[in-house]
Write a structure and sequence with these properties.
By secondary structure, the chain is mainly alpha-helical. The protein has one domain. Helices cover about 80% and strands about 0% of the residues. The chain contains four helices and no strands. The longest helix is centred in the middle third of the chain and has 122 residues. The N and C termini lie far apart (about 160 Å). Keywords: Coiled coil.
Length: about 190
């Protein structure tokens, strides 16, 4: 270790500390409170009232500051709640629009399904009607063929009747009727 004494430490040890006069002034109230001579400051109710009055202005300032802070905080909360409320209103409007759109789409789907069912029944009815048309066409063709055959027979009978009228004979109406009946019965059989 170093055997030389420290110059700085030796100065501090040799010299006595200087007096601190600024702490001994009469105006330093806080210093007086901690002074051991407490007998010179009487503690009375009067002094407490003065302390209350002195600190009342501080309390009022703090109350005003606290009220202002509370008003600011409440104003911010109101602003935030208004923003949230506007958000909720927007979402409610969007929900309402979506519900309306959903209802509209459901109606369209039900209309489409009703139309689809109608189309299927119409297709079925159309097939039935086409079958009926084919059946009626066959009957019409058959009746047309019979009509042609009947017209040919009538023409043939008309020509026979003309021939018979040209020939002088003793043919009676009974004989003509019998002859026509025989022809008709032969044609119905054949």
């Amino acid at each position: 270790m170093n055997s030389k004494p420290n110059a700085f430490l030796s100065l501090l040890q040799d010299s006595s500390p200087p007096k601190k006069e600024f702490l001994n002034t009469m105006n330093d109230l806080t210093r007086d409170m901690y002074n051991h001579k407490r007998e010179d400051v009487p503690v009375t109710e009067h002094r407490f009232e003065h302390d209350k009055l002195l600190h009342q202005s501080d309390r009022m300032k703090h109350q005003t500051r606290d009220k202002d802070r509370m008003i600011r905080d409440l104003s911010e909360q109101v602003k935030n709640l208004k923003e949230k409320m506007s958000f909720v209103i927007e979402k409610d409007e969007e929900i309402y629009k979506l519900k309306c759109e959903n209802t509209h789409l459901k109606n369209e789907v039900s209309d489409y399904q009703a139309t689809t069912v109608t189309d299927e029944t119409l297709i079925r009815d159309n097939e039935n009607l086409n079958q009926d048309i084919r059946d009626l066409q066959e009957r019409y063709d058959l009746l047309e063929k019979r009509n042609v055959d009947i017209q040919k027979k009538l023409i043939g009978l008309y020509h026979e009747n003309k021939e018979l009228q040209r020939r002088p004979s003793t043919i009676t109406d009974e004989m003509i009727g019998k002859y026509i009946r025989n022809l008709v019965s032969k044609n119905n059989i054949g």
